[in-house]
Amino acid sequence: MVSLLVRPSSGGPSWPQERTLVVLVGVKQDGVQWRLVGTVIHRFESRGFKLVGMKMLQAPERILAELYPDLQRKPFYPALISHMSSGPVVAMVWEGRTVVHISRTMIGHTDSTEAGPGTIRRLQCSHQQECHSC
């Protein structure tokens, strides 16, 4: 997740707007395949955040390397990159007060098995288990 702090344009609220680029679990290739994009958008909008940009793309390996620099020396890294580039992802930019902090809470722990109830990662984890049990 990439976070930016931007000043509002004239006529906007007096507090600075936070913006965060969210390429989150719910909209990685699995989330797109399982049609969870709308659910993720709804969750952010229901928290009062404003969607200011969105793009579906096939993430090139160089972009994925920038997202996961700390994992490049891990033995599972090649499999991670292969999996992440196996389908389209949806990148979104959200704006709102405390969006960075709240989005981290909404998304949940990076290990989906440890993600709290109601988090986006838990949603994906439960959906993944349903799909694999079929």
From TrEMBL:
- Give any Gene Ontology cellular component: mitochondrial matrix
The record's section on SMART domains has: NDK (SM00562)
Q: How does it sit in the membrane?
A: Peripheral membrane protein
Coiled-coil regions in this chain?
A: none
Q: Does the keyword Kinase apply?
A: yes
Q: Which SUPFAM superfamilies match?
A: Nucleoside diphosphate kinase, NDK (SSF54919)
- For this protein, the Enzyme Commission number is 2.7.4.6
Q: Which Pfam families match?
A: NDK
Q: Which cofactor does it need?
A: Mg(2+)
Q: Where is the major localization of this protein?
A: mitochondrion
Molecular function terms, GO-annotated: ATP binding; metal ion binding; nucleoside diphosphate kinase activity
Q: Which UniProt keywords apply?
A: ATP-binding, Kinase, Magnesium, Metal-binding, Nucleotide metabolism, Nucleotide-binding, Transferase
User: What sort of enzyme, by top EC class, is this?
Assistant: transferase
Q: Which GO terms describe its biological process?
A: CTP biosynthetic process; GTP biosynthetic process; UTP biosynthetic process
Q: InterPro entries, per this entry?
A: NDK-like_dom, NDK-like_dom_sf, Nucleoside_diP_kinase
Q: What does the UniProt entry say about where the protein is found?
A: Mitochondrion intermembrane space; Mitochondrion matrix
**Domain (Nucleoside diphosphate kinase-like): residue spans on this chain:** 17-133
Question: Any stretches that span the bilayer, and where are they?
Answer: none
Catalytic reactions of this protein: a 2'-deoxyribonucleoside 5'-diphosphate + ATP = a 2'-deoxyribonucleoside 5'-triphosphate + ADP; a ribonucleoside 5'-diphosphate + ATP = a ribonucleoside 5'-triphosphate + ADP
UniProt-listed PROSITE patterns:
NDPK_LIKE
Tell me how this protein assembles. Answer: Homohexamer. Interacts with OPA1. Interacts with CAPN8.
Which family is annotated?
Belongs to the NDK family.
The protein's name is Nucleoside diphosphate kinase, mitochondrial
